[in-house]
Amino acid sequence: MDVIAVAQELMKFRTETGNLEQIDKCLEYCQSLFKDSGAIVEIARFPTASPVIFIRNHNTENFDVLCLGHLDVVPASDDMFVPKLANGKLYGRGSLDMKSFAAVALNSMEYVLQHQLNLKFGVILSTDEEKGSASTHAFLNAHPNISAKIVLDNDTGGDIRKIVTKCKNPVFVKIMAQGLEAHGSTPWEGIDANEMMMQVIANIRKIYPYYSKNGNIPADKWIDTVHVAKLHGGEVSNVICGETEALLDFRLTENSSVDNLCKNLDSCMIPGVSYKIVSESTPVVMPEDNKYILEYKQFAENIMGEKIEFEHIGGATDSRAFAVKGSIVVMHSGTGEGMHTAGEYVVMDSVKQIAEIQIKFLEKLAAEKNI
What we know:
Helix content is 32%, strand content 29%. The protein is α+β, with helices and mostly antiparallel strands. It folds into 2 domains: 3-167 and 283-370, Zn peptidases (Aminopeptidase, 3-Layer(aba) Sandwich), CATH 3.40.630.10; 169-279, Alpha-Beta Plaits. The protein starts with a helix and ends with a helix.
């Protein structure tokens, strides 16, 4: 399989999260790649979530290896759905996040099938990862016993020279301030919900400082952080705001807990302001001395001809659902920049290298089973 050619075909589908017509066409294209191959291909559909494509070489839910990824993308202009090649780079929406690496997963499946590797191997590609991964949750609810010894996760990247071994726990918190409306000329007759919200956020900042590129940057970045994702209060200039809401995005390390976060938030509240946890997950932490991670790392170093470093990132990954089940998660992606921006690109050689590393690793795992 030509992974770059397949990546370009995938990128032509305008699979912005929620665009079900284009998502269906993209899934049908993926399905067509395995016609008469012997693969078991299922497009799973759900009443409250978008579809998931599930490709496997055995009728099992107990896998040696699973590849996880997604096919949806964030919105972009029309021209970004026309892939462009220039100076060894593939430009366009989804080039880095993550259709190139969905193509890598499909390539690995084709290789396993054609070479009849002694592995129970599968690929799961969701279609709404960019807006919360409801499809992944629905799929896992429909397959509660699915498991994998090893999970290959190529949705963590930006630099092929780094293997991710830690991801933080994203916790979204909604804060609600209830004030009292009044005319803007008589503020003493009202209670300004915006002022209440600002006071609470200031209290939160005493525990979780504000960081920015042109301001405060921590020496140790493996810390709990928060940013104000949304803030809304008031409609017109001459009315004291009666209600304000904020959505905060906390990223917690494995050394923290949601219970401790709630204790901190409790200490930050004032009368008239409350909060609720909108969503929470779990951090993914992999031991850097794990046999399989080190074997994978060795293949990567041999193929690339340079040393690979371990890295910790603040982003979340869908592979956390398997990490909590005890899977060894190998988080490694290719090199590129501009994720979610108009300049998104991936270095094509890095995509080809990830594909080669993955195949060498799968061959090694199959050989171990044959002994």
